[in-house]
Recover the amino acids of this structure.
């Protein structure tokens, strides 16, 4: 039964993604850009800038969660179901030669290891990005989020969630790009675009 549910979840997420993005042409070595960061770090904004430059779809966990759960509670079973479907969808795209950006907190190395394995299994180029911002700026952004100031902001995480998640955040053990969104993000965007096109 779990298999049937997971298949249905993957198809629902695929349909949602294809409604929002035109998929790129398949390539012999697809790219998985996995973007990690705490709520309010500027992760989704960074992913949108990258998507515009590279014409790649963004699999955004906050959007996909609401496809599976119209009123999410953000508990462990919900997250496990969401990420099981996301990871399978990523694997399917990469197996077909389709590159993708994955926008999720991805804070724990054990969870990122699943992405490493998917990239290895599919022969994809893996690009890891850590997005961060000073806590005082994050606090200001999360206050704006609560006020509904950004129509493109799909997250519901607030300052309490940020503080809780920051305690479980682990450093990325593999080579990765680091970007501070309180500064000009253009140099890092340029480097990633060069890396993808190399």
């Amino acid at each position: 039964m779990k298999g049937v549910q997971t298949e249905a979840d993957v198809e629902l997420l695929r349909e949602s993604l294809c409604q929002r993005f035109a998929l790129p042409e398949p390539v012999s070595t697809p790219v998985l850009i996995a973007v990690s960061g705490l709520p309010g770090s500027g992760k989704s904004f960074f992913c949108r800038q990258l998507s515009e430059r590279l014409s790649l779809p963004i699999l955004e966990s906050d959007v996909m969660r609401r496809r599976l759960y119209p009123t999410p509670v953000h508990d462990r079973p919900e997250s496990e179901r969401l990420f099981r479907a996301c990871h399978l969808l990523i694997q399917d795209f990469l197996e077909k030669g389709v590159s993708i950006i994955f926008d999720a907190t991805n804070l724990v190395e054990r969870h990122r290891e699943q992405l490493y394995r998917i990239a290895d299994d599919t022969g994809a180029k893996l690009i890891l990005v850590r997005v961060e911002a000073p806590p005082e700026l994050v606090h200001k952004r999360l206050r704006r989020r609560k006020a509904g100031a950004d129509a493109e902001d799909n997250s519901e995480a607030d300052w309490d969630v940020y503080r809780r998640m920051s305690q479980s955040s682990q450093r990325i053990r593999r080579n990765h790009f680091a970007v501070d969104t309180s500064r000009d993000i253009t140099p890092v965007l340029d480097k990633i675009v060069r890396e993808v096109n190399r």
